[in-house]
Structure formats: C-alpha cells, structure tokens
Amino acid sequence: xxxxxxxxxxxxxxxxxxxxxxxxxxxxxxxxxxxxxxxxxxxxxxxxxxxxxxxxxxxxxxxxxxxxxxxxxxxxxxxxxxxxxxxxxxxxxxxxxxxxxxxxxxxxxxxxxxxxxxxxxxxxxxxxxxxxxxxxxxxxxxxxxxxxxxxxxxxxxxxxxxxxxxxxxxxxxxxxxxxxxxxxxxxxxxxxxxxxxxxx
Length: 200
What we know:
single chain, 200 residues, mainly alpha, 2 domains, two-stranded antiparallel sheet, 74% helix, elongated
C-alpha cells in the first residue's frame, strides 16, 4: 500500500458506506433484502445445529441416498449456495448416482429460487451479496486502521477523517485541529505514512 492507495481508500469511504446502504435495501423477493440474507442465514444456522447429530436422525431414506451420492462425488464442501451448486458434478458413472446428483442439484436450485423469488435472478442476488460483503470488509478495515491510529496518534486519525473522509479542504481541517498550514502538511504526511503501516 502506498500514499496514493491510502488517499484513494480514505476518499472512497463515504461512497463505500452509501453503496452498502443501497445493497442492504435491495429486495430479493418475498420481502427479503440482501442485508437479511447476509445477517440472518437461517439455513446455515440450522445446518450448524444439525451438524452435531447423525444424519439418520433428521434425513429421510431418499435424503440419505442423496447424502451418500454427494459424499461419493464431491471433493470439497463449499459454504455458499452458488458454490455448492457448482460443486455438484453434472453427471456420474452410475445411473442411480446420476439421478441422485440431478436431484441434489434440483434441491439446491429450489433453495435458491425460494430465496430469490426466481431462478434467473439468483446469480444477481449472489453478486450483490458478494459485493456487500466485500464493501463491508473494506469499511471494517478502514475503521479498524483509523481506530488503531487513534489509539496512539489521535490527531493523525482526526486529520485523515476530516481531510480525506469528510473531504474538507486543508484550511478547514487545520482550523479544526488548531494547527498552522505547515504543521497540517507535516502531520498529513506522517498520518498517511502511519495509516499505511497499520493498514498493510
């Protein structure tokens, strides 16, 4: 990370926050928003609870057959629904396994359809959810770096917030910090350098 990247990252902070708000309110159908999918993934919570139990206690005979086929043909078990759908092979060497894999794909597609309201729109929802998670990670990284900087150089953190995040010109930022122009530019250079070291 260099000075230009630091300045760009801090200057984009408000845009990141605005985009997060837009994405959180994006409707995916049935009154569900992307933020709800992100925060309240009930299927994953149920899966976590069921994971500790033997599968014969909660799966039907047919579902146990699907589970057996999945274990035989899947080499990894991704957590995202889109990744799970991609992980299921299109076909199998055995006719029964082939049918089981098709059924498994159909069940995953039904979950996607139930969440999005349409089969066609699920990829758009997944993309928006991924973008939301990426932006939230960027926001959290900036917040954490500024908090860390504030813990040992509070004036530097205040300068970065005022000048880059809030977009105030140097004279307003300097007035807020009660420093001269020369001190402002000296601190700005040091603040960017310190932020750069923390945010690596």
